[in-house]
Amino acid sequence: MAYITSAALEETGYVVLDKYDREMDPREWLDIEYNDWKSSGDTRFAPLASAKGEIECNGFWNHKPPRTDKDGVWIDSQTAKAPDLTRRAQEPGANVGRCRVIELQPNTYADCLYNLHQDDNNRLNPDGTGWVVRGFFNLTDDKDSYFVLRHNRTDPEGEVRIALPAGAQLIVDTQRLWHAATHPGDSARYCLITSWESGPELDAYIEKYNGVNHVESVAVPQDELDAGQAEQSRRLAARAAALAARGQAEKLVMSEA
Ligand SMILES: [Fe+2]
Q1: What are 195-214's pLDDT values in tens digits?
Q2: Confidence band, pLDDT 50/70/90 cuts, at residue 255
Q3: CA 257 to ligand 1 center in whole angstroms
Q4: Residue 250's pLDDT band (cuts 50, 70, 90)
Q5: 22 CA distance to ligand 1 middle (Å)
Q6: Is the pLDDT of residue 88 over 70?
Q7: Distance, CA of 246 to CA of 237 (rounded, Å)
Q8: pLDDT tens-digit series, residues 97-130
Q9: Can you tell which superkingdom this protein's organism belongs to (predicted)?
């Protein structure tokens, strides 16, 4: 047995869809309820679907009974305020697990590299069913921001940087690729993140919106890339030393964002 996966994501682990071309009402992400949830970077999350329909962001495997990141329960008080976001998350018709809006405060490329992580969306996912991947719909028009994808956390070889203007739509195998966002500027970035089960529904959705599995990376000056890489090395070493002093190993996988 093997998981059902999307052929479109097989080569690179991501696809970029057509840009969402309709205006969104910012109240959909500003008026919903957030809770503090420590993820990669300075973040808050507003769930639209959660394990039990409550406004909390814990992995479904931390609930009783534990389960994988599927069959999220829509939160009526949130979806009533965010009908278009809800409709967009439901449009593929694929099973939805966690669905929430992330609010990310400004950061730097070096911060982003330090924040790179893999998700564990497929914890407890039964073999033979659909692999869980994640949709990222950028909501704010973050013209200078970009999503960073790497195969290896500390190796810049093959790094992909995907632009995040309003309407950018990506689907990423976030358990396979290390990922985080670089978000310069002075205001928060908002993005809808949805866990979807791979299968024919998601494949049809990717095809409908012309998903492409290669994009040109956002251009960043080489000295900035080099400085970010050096800073990531420095911070990771400092963190490892601090953890070693406490007799702990580094936690490599984050469950959120
Ligand atoms: Fe993540």
Answers
A1: 999 999 999 999 999 999 99
A2: very low
A3: 4
A4: low
A5: 26
A6: yes
A7: 14
A8: 999 999 999 999 999 999 999 999 999 999 999 9
A9: Bacteria
Residue count of the chain: 257
181, 41, 51, 26 alpha-carbon torsion, rounded to 10°: -60
Binned at pLDDT 50, 70 and 90, residue 257 comes out as very low
Centroid of ligand 1 to alpha carbon of 61 (angstroms): 16
Confirm if 191 and 135 have CB atoms less than 8 A apart. no
What are the start-end ranges of the H helices in 31-82? Answer: 76-79
The first and second tokens of residue 113, run together, are: 């590299």
Q: Which residue has the tokens 């205006």?
A: 23
DSSP character at residue 61:
G
Contacts of 172 (CB under 8 A, 6+ apart): 9, 13, 14, 133, 134, 136, 147, 149, 179
Centre of ligand 1 from the C-alpha of residue 174, in Å: 6
Q: Residue 10: pLDDT band by 50, 70, 90 thresholds?
A: very high
Could you tell me if 3 and 127 are in contact, meaning their C-beta atoms sit under 8 angstroms apart? yes
Indicate the domain borders of the chain: 7-245
- Measured between alpha carbons, how far is residue 223 from residues 110, 216, 226 in Å? 12, 19, 5
**Domain 7-245: CATH superfamily, name plus number:** B-lactam Antibiotic, Isopenicillin N Synthase; Chain (2.60.120.330)
